[in-house]
Design goal:
Elements (H helix, E strand, L loop, with lengths): L2 E5 L2 E4 L4 E8 L4 E10 L6 E6 L5 E3 L7 E6 L4 E6 L8 E10 L4 E5 L3 E6 L1
Parallel strand pairs: 2-11
Antiparallel strand pairs: 1-3, 3-8, 4-5, 4-9, 5-6, 7-8, 9-10, 9-11
């Protein structure tokens, strides 16, 4: 069974930085796209950033120039460097990966990590 374990969330003041990590474990043949989503209270889950297997990236307009996504394929890990954080970045952040096993390709989600930005 494939699992994603996230770390790095917490409380930070506006203008500060945090780095989220998400590592995959289990019987994995390969990983396609990786991404980070977030869900604020009372709002729908939204895509924050994504990175393809080849390293192409995409960002939500609200985080462009402040957040940076990267991946380490050998470690099966995706990172999200978040700089110049704003109170509106407060949310639960979820990682997502398109994982290939011997039998199938499946979309896997992390458990979520809370990021709170105080003003």
């Amino acid at each position: 069974q494939v699992q994603l374990v996230e770390s790095g969330g917490g409380l930070v003041q506006a203008g500060g930085s945090l780095r989220l990590s998400c590592a995959a474990s289990g019987s994995i043949f390969g990983i396609n796209a990786m991404g980070w989503y977030r869900q604020a209270p009372g709002k729908q889950r939204e895509l924050v950033a994504a990175i393809t297997r080849g390293g192409n990236t995409d960002y939500a307009d609200s985080v462009k120039g402040r957040f940076f996504i990267s991946r380490d394929n050998a470690k099966r890990t995706v990172y999200l460097q978040m700089n110049s954080l704003k109170p509106e970045d407060t949310a639960v952040y979820y990682c997502n990966m398109g994982v290939m096993t011997m039998a199938t390709i499946t979309e896997v989600w992390g458990q979520g990590t809370l990021v709170t930005v105080s003003s």
